[in-house]
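Reviewers of the previous submission asked for a worked example of the structure-prediction workflow described in the proposal, so we include one complete record here. The input consisted solely of the amino acid sequence. No template or homolog information was supplied to the procedure at any stage.
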Amino acid sequence: MYTDKLKFIFVFLAVLVLLLCSCGSAAQERREDNYTVKVMLRPEEGVSVEGDSILDVSSGHTATFRLKIEDGYTYIGNSAGAEYDSETGRLRLHDVYAPETIDIFAARDEDVIAFSVKSNNPAAAAYSDKSLLAYPGEVGVFAECPDYLTFEGWSEDGFLEDGGRLVSESLDDVVFVDSDLTLYANFKGFSEYRIIYNLCGGKTADGEDEYTALGSYNEIYAMQQTLESNGSFIKEGYTAVGYSLEPAEYENYRSANDIPGFSNMGGVCKVTGESLELNVVWAKNSPERDFIYDIESVPVIKDVFPGSLAQKTEMTEGAVIKAYVGTDTLAVIPEALDGKPVLAISSGAFESDTLERVVIPKSVVTVEKNAFSGCPELYETVIFDSVCEVYDESFPDTLKTVVLNAQRLPVYSGEVEGSFCVKYERLRTAGDNFIAVVSGSSSLNGLDGELFEELMPGYTVINYGTNAANPSLFFLEAISKYANKGDIVVHAPEYSSSASMGLNEFHAKVFRGNEQCYDIFRDVDISNYTHFWDCFRKFQIGDPGDNSLVPAMHQSGKPYQLPADINKYGDRSVPRKSVRGSFGGSTETFDKFRLNADNLNGIYKKYLESGAELLFSFGTFDKSRLSPSSAVQSEYDKFTEKCAQALDFPVISNIGTYIMDHQNFFDSEWHPNEEGARIRTENLVKDLKEYLLNGDPEKKGD
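From that input alone, the workflow returned the following C-alpha cells.
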C-alpha cells in the first residue's frame, strides 16, 4: 500500500513538472512572438527625415517615417518596398518581423531617368516595375495577353504598326535603361466585338431591318446581353421566340432544341470571334378565332415588398383567355387580342388531345392552376419571365422542355448569385477535355481553378459550385449534354444536404443563379423535377415562408456586368485569409443517409451514353462541427462505403479527406478559406489521378 502511494506521488509530480515546463514553453513562445525590431532609415542626398530615423517596432507592426524631399530633387524609391505617400511625406513599412535598413533613393531633377510602357490595345495589360531611375539600371517589363489577342513583342520608337523597332518578343523581360525611354507593347487582334441581329422579316421599333450591339472583351469572358432590343423587334402576326445561328421558323421544327444554334432571348452569350450573327426565330400567331376570351380589368403586380410580401398592383384592362378551340399541334398565343394585351390564361382554358407545344407571349402575367392540365400531349412551352403567378398545377406532368425567355434586364447581374452564366458559358465553349466539379458552396469557395489546371494539364477546369439548396442533379443533367469522351465530371456534394445528394426538387435559388442563362433550362427534362413552377413564382414574387428570398419583382434590372467575386474558372475570388470564429456545439453526425442513389444512377446513364466520366467525391466540412463519435476514421469509412455501395459510378474519395481542420474555414463550416481551398484542390487532384491511373478501387477483382 505504502509503495503504491509513493508511485502515485511520483507520477503526479512528474506530470506536474511536464505541465509546468509546457506552460513555461508556451509562455516563452508568447514572449518571443511579442518582440521589438529596430528599423533604420538611411536617406540619400536631397532627402531629410523629420523626426527619428531609427524606430523600435513591435513584431508584425508598421514602421512609419516622415520624409522631406528637397527642392530640385525627385523621390525614386526605396530598398525595402516600403509604401511612400508623396502628399503627406509618410513612408510606411508594413509587417515588420526582422531588423531592417531602408535606403531612400532620390536624384536631382535633371538626372532623373524616366521610363514608361504603352499598349496598343486597351484590353491587354503592359507595365513595368520602375517608372523612375536615379541612375542607369535594369527595369522589368511585363505584358499580359488575353486569349483572343496575340503578343507581337516590345518595340522602341513607337508601335510596330507605326514603324517602331522590335527589341524583344518575350512577354516578361528585363531591359537596361540609361536615358529616358518608352517601350511599346504590341498586341495583334481585336478588343471589341459586335452582335448582329438579323430580324428575318421583322423590324426594330425604329423601322430598321437589322440591329447591332457592341461590346468589349475582358479578362474573364467576352459576354453580351442579348436582351438589348428584345421587345422592339416587330413582325406583324408573329411572336419572337428566340435566336438561331441560321434563319429558322419555329413551326418547322419539333422542338426549339432542334433549331441549329438556338438560344433563348435575354441572358448573355459568349462571343468567341470579332462578330456574332443571331437570327430572330419567329413563330406565326394562331388565328384569333382559336381563342375564346373576355376583356377584363386584371390586377397586374408592379412590386412586391420583402418581408410582408405585400403587393403593389395596378388594374390593367386586357384579354383573359377562357378557352382554346384550335386543333393544331402548336398554339401561338398572340400578344394582343381585339387590340388588348393578353394578360392571363384561366383555369381549364386549354383542353386539347392534339396540342403539343404552346407559345405564351410576354404580355401574360398569370397562368392559373390547371390552365393546361387538359393537354396530355403537351411537351414544350415558350414563356417569358413576365409571368408572376404560375403554379406546378398550371401545366401537365408531360411537359419536358421549357423555353424561358427574358423580357427584363436581370436583377442579379454582377452578383455571386447571378454568376452561373460564367460557369455555363465556360462549359459550352470548353472544347476538348474539361473537368467540372459539381457541388454547393463548399466547391464555390473551396476550389482553386488555376491550381487545378496546373495540376491537371490538358484539361479546362469548371468550378460548378453553386448553393447547397440547389439540386445538383439538375446541373449534372445539364452538363451531361455537353460532356463527351475524355471529359470528367466530379460530383462532390455536401453530405448533409438532400438537394446536393441527388434530390430532384427545385429551389427558387436555381432561378437566381441562372437568371442570365435561361438556356440551361432547355438542357434538362423538366418532367424529371418537382416544384419547377412553384419555385419560379417564389423567385418572382417571394415566398411567405422564406423572407430571405427577396422577390425579383422588387429589384431593378441592370445590363450584364461581370461578377466581381467570380473568376473565369467559376471560383469565388474574394479574399478569404481569415479563420471562421467560434460557434456553439459539435453535434453533426452521419446518421441521416440522404443520398438519392436512384436519381444519380439515372443521370449516370447519360454519361455512359456519351463516354464521359461521372465520378463521386465529397464537399468540405469543418471537423470541429462533428460530434466526437463521428469525427473518427471508422465513421468516415462507413459513410464512404454506404455511398459506394449505393452508386453505380465510382466513388474516388474518402469523406474523411474533406473533413478538414477548423483553421481551414472562412465564414461557414462548409466554406474553406484560401489555404483550405488549396488543400482541398490538391487532395481532389490526388484522388482523381489515383482513379485515372488505377481505375475504380471498388471494382478491383470484378
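The chain has five domains: 36-110, 112-189, 192-284, 288-405, 416-516+560-699. We consider this example representative of the routine output the project will generate in years two and three.
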